[in-house]
Design a protein that fits this description.
- Residues 196-207 have a biased composition (Basic residues).
- It comes from Phytohabitans houttuyneae.
- By secondary structure, the chain is mainly alpha-helical.
- It is 54% helix and 6% strand.
- The chain has one domain: Jann2411-like domain (Jann2411-like fold), CATH 1.10.3300.10.
- The strands form 2 sheets. A two-stranded antiparallel ribbon has the order 1-2.
- Helix 4 packs parallel to helix 6 (131-145) and helix 5 packs across helix 6.
Amino acid sequence: MLTSRWGGWLCLDFANIVEARAAAAPEEHLHTYGELLWWGADTGVLDEERAARLGELADAKPRAAAAALDRAIHLREGVFRTFHHAARALPPPADDLAAIHDRYADGIRHAELDWTREPPAWTWADAHLDQPAWAVAASAVELATHGPLHRVKTCAAEEGCAGLFVDTTKNNSRRWCEMEGCGNEVKFRRQTDRRRAARRRQPPRAR
């Protein structure tokens, strides 16, 4: 199971679960509801007790859990396309906005406002199989309405990454999802191309 933290925003990290989206064969890392729960627990969306309760509920209602996974994946793809468009200053597709809106509205219908938190926050008292998706949708709405939307970018790697992230650098200069990954690959490729070009420019050696 892939868990990226370089997106800088929960909804973007969820969208980035698919690896190498722009490649010929993207790699899916979310196959079961159990993996969705693992992601939720690993990212802090679910505490240990809630993850365990949802796991028991999924075991008792496997068809419902499979349907919740399908809804989460549908939301994930809507989140990716919405913010991929935003990164290019383009309006997102209406269907993708609807996917975010539907899950967000559903989550709010089941939520309670916990005033004991600082600041107050929406919480879900009852275990519900859609809770991980609700948290992602809430994150997407927050990023779109109050977050640094103008800082959302797509990884500049030319061969398939398409990962989304929020650029938090002071001069807005970040270009890659991870410097240790795509950034180094791009720099290595450019260095190799420069060396090849330099060799082509050299005059042939006299025999």
